[in-house]
Amino acid sequence: MVCKMVKKGVLGAALTAGALYLAFGTHAPSYVRTAFHKVRHTAKDSVPIQFDIERARDEIASLAPAIDNNKEELARAEVDVEHLQSEISTVRGNLDAEKKIMVSLREGLSSGDLRLTGNVSYTAAEVRTELAHRLDHYRNVSKILEEKEATLKARQRAVLSARQKLTEMANQKRALATKLESIQARLQAIEATQERNEFTFDDSALARAKQTVADLERRLEVKARVAEMDGHFSGGSLPVGTESGRDVLKEFDAEFGPKGKDTGDKTL
């Protein structure tokens, strides 16, 4: 049963790949990658900004343990440097004391005074053997001292670099936290603006009242016009316009005489 499902899955994938190849040819992988990135970016854009802000805040907070661990490592390194400095100082003191003894042995061989401690005398061969032993030891310790000094310089540089990195890390953490708070404040301002822009109220009652007043004004204007017409045309017929080109005065004079003298009419 499992083998059949696996075979079906492989066959489905092969058919899908074949279909893509037939549709896009050699550019099929590019289309697939582009589609994948687009889907991923679309999914990321759909995540609320506040969620990403909280996620960034958690990531910044997670830097604190790392900084604390680095502080502890730096403290250990500084202690190691101090101990190494103390060792080098002790070795240098021992070499200085050893050098003084060898100088004394060499002077004794030159002067013939072979008393090393108190009144005990030694032979020249014994003094030379002692001098050779101390000289070899001095040389070996000097090499060790050189190695310790080189190690000290390397550790000092490492401590300095670690301190600088730790300081930079702490500064960057503070800068990121400040920037994140600025982003949070800006988001809140944008959301507040959107809330103001999206706030609506029912103004239908106001619109109805305005329309009612407008209708009243129109009706009152019509009533006033009607009253004016009643006063102007009361008791008489409506005036009729004359024909175009007609000489009414000439017709009147011909009918009633000039200015209506024959009928006793008053002048117009």
Structural key phrases:
268 residues; mainly alpha; Helix Hairpins
Short note summarizing the structure:
With about 270 residues, this protein is mainly α.
Please give the number of β-strands.
0
Helicity level: over 70%
Q: What is the residue-mean pLDDT, rounded to a whole number?
A: 76
CATH topology of the domain at 60-195: Helix Hairpins
Approximate strand percentage: under 5%
Sheet/helix structural class: mainly alpha
Evaluate the radius of gyration. 57 Å
How many helix segments? 7
Please identify the top-level CATH class of the domain at 60-195: Mainly Alpha
Element order: H for helix, E for strand: HHHHHHH
The low-confidence runs, each spanning 5 or more residues with pLDDT under 50, are none
CATH architecture of the domain at 60-195: Orthogonal Bundle
End-to-end C-alpha gap: 121 Å
Architecture blueprint of SSEs:
Elements: H1 2-24, H2 28-45, H3 49-61, H4 63-111, H5 124-198, H6 204-233, H7 248-256
Helix pairs in contact: 3-5, 4-5
